[in-house]
């Protein structure tokens, strides 16, 4: 093998023929001579592995330095990658010299994949990993298997309705739990922090097949897309969101919205409709909304025939009509002295029976 002038090298020792190995959601079954990868861009990368395809995938984040050599060892006993073992200076220099001289069998990083990976993962940093219970060079599992939690798996920021009720504090329940999610997002964490977690959840889902990561990604997308007030205040943030969603969904199969995973309570479809409804009337976001709609139409066949996000929003308003159906659904929960909005706020805060009807009523009211 010719001498290399790489961006970064990854040397993986002691691998087993037939095991599954991947980087940045690109996966191979290893042959007997595999010893690593060359031409890796600097920054964070996600390695995945599974011993012979027998066990589920696990992952490990590494931070590559331009011109550097990163080393991982396959731990046969524990069936995982180990990047924490310390090499002596002599061992490290010998390994680097062999790699740079072309003495090792290194495969190229997947062609044209660096740009794809950067589009979905460039915002993720070490602080994001640490917030979510992940560490560099430490293997972790997908999490969420049969409700069990292990030490080596992601911990996501709670954004379910119970967590939101705990965060409300003295804020008026009607405005806090209403269609505009800006207050709920602000009470959870800084938008920039949650955007990075959204990106991390997607790559963990994509690379490890983690259902828990998929659900967190869906929840965060729905939360961001419902932030009407925040969109007006921080349009650049939501331009980045539209670009990120486009890059993420470009990696999803064409049947994603028909598949059981993508269809899960139609969370994502509803989130995109929220984004179009909230962004279409904002000059700095209308182009981003139109671009995301055009991508969804071309890639997934969604909402065909609408020339723009504003046209889609107007058509849906005409199709759905008034909120009479939601009123009928909600009236059976009204207590003496309550109007429908007061009833909806109470039901959302309680989180039990009537929660779905209350959310539907407030969303219809705001449409």
Automatic annotation (TrEMBL):
Please list the GO biological process terms of this entry. spliceosomal tri-snRNP complex assembly
Instruction: Write out the similarity annotation.
Output: Belongs to the AAR2 family.
Lineage summary? Eukaryota, Sar, Stramenopiles, Ochrophyta, Pelagophyceae
Superkingdom classification of source: Eukaryota
| AAR2 N-terminal domain residues | 7-132
Q: Which positions fall inside the AAR2 C-terminal domain?
A: 191-301
Instruction: Extract the InterPro entries matched here.
Output: AAR2, AAR2_C, AAR2_C_sf, Aar2_N, AAR2_N_sf
Q: What is this protein called?
A: Uncharacterized protein
Which Pfam families does the annotation name?
AAR2 (PF05282), AAR2_1st (PF20981)
Q: Which CDD domains match?
A: Aar2_C, Aar2_N
